[in-house]
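Q: Got a minute? One more chain.
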Amino acid sequence: MPGPRLQKAEQTATEVLKRWHVESPPVPVDDLAKCEGLSLRSEMLEDDVSAMLVLAPESQPVIVVNSSHHQHRRRFSIAHEIGHFALHSGKSTLFVEFRDARAAMAIDPKEIEANAFAAALLMPRRLLRVDLRHPRFRSLDVQAVTALARRYEVSEQAMKFRLVNLGIVAGFED
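A: Always. Here it is, folded:
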């Protein structure tokens, strides 16, 4: 059972999806960012920086996403920064999403929450449960996970983690 902070991340993502009437995948994450009052910019950043959220007094909050990263990484990064905005924006003025050894250790509670929010936003529990009733996805073999990842426009790794974290599958062997 996830802790209260991860439950809050899941609940907040669900509220964003409901507020903007998202009913099917793929989730239009760019549009959701704009609906939530965030400006989006795509720029070449250092390779180990996926995105950042800049909150400046009296100006529109901005998500800057690394234009050189794969579409799936960019979508997840935008969702991650929306998570920081929704969950943490009163506590900081800059959030930077790194792809480095520290990020891989997943020790920063705010980063863990933003990742949980991003997963819940891009792969909503309710929509996944509907899809998993379809015969095409019932076996959840490699082809089914690949098809789900394509349908939600996320990486296969992100889809695997989400399915495991939702308790839909016990785990995957690579």
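A: The first helix runs from residue 4 to 19.
Q: Perfect, thanks.
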